[in-house]
Amino acid sequence: MNRRKFLQSGIAIGAAGVCASPILAGQFTGRIRKSLKYSMIDVRLSLVQQFQLLKRADFDGVEISLRDGLSPQEVRAATDATEIAVHGVIHGAGDDCSASIDLCEQVGGSTVLVVAPELDNLSYADNFARSLAVVRKAIPLAEKQNVRLLIENVRASFLKTAEEMARFIDELESPAIGAYYDTGNTITWTKQTAQHWAHVLGHRIVKVDIKDRGHAEFGDPKLKSQTAVGTDGGEVHWANVRRELAAVNFSGWASAEVKGGDARRLSGVSKWMDQVLDL
């Protein structure tokens, strides 16, 4: 039953009439806010019109990057006009994330997504030490701008297990550091499940990227794992992921990171997120 619709059944109680039909709330209704990556919007409109499109599709916010070429002024204007929040900036693997931190503060965001890249010419230990130094250097500016730096689990990182990523975050010893947990990346290049990553990262998780490469419509079935068993026709066992997120009382932003498109496509992504996140 679609929890976003009124129940159609009522119970007559004597002459008092029919009971009002309540709206069913999902497990994470009111706890997770829906977002997507700005690059997923594939329509030529003004920024305000694009944000209006997101609002109609039932999104609450969006993430941008320096590569999008958006000025802080136009972003703020679009947010004021639509109430679509720009909650974060995607930086990636570059060593200097100061510009991303500044942009995040200027648009009213709270986090910058950072990757700890694997350099082929370095050993695991040297990659670990190098990335720790890079992120540590960025912490003072992040703290000054009231922005958190979130490490994401990606294919190009040397952090190949949830345990390694948790240790990396813990060694930074800063409340400005957290985890950006990507549900799909856990399966694509590791032998661990999405729920295992969620369990190990636990309280470190600040935001979540929603992705399932094995899904027929919102993924790429050609990339589907032969061993991963999902609950939505793909690879991610969403019920187990939700269980782990609930165990740490997760609340915050979840961003779709799948193939984008026009208004109809983005509306479909939004509805899919409702389903897998139980919103």
UniProtKB/TrEMBL annotation:
InterPro entries: IolE/XylAMocC-like, Xyl_isomerase-like_sf, Xyl_isomerase-like_TIM-brl. It holds the Pfam family AP_endonuc_2. One of its GO terms (molecular function) is isomerase activity. It comes from the Bacteria. Keywords: Isomerase. Residues 51-261 form the Xylose isomerase-like TIM barrel domain. Gene3D superfamilies: Divalent-metal-dependent TIM barrel enzymes. PANTHER family: HYDROXYPYRUVATE ISOMERASE. This is Xylose isomerase-like TIM barrel.
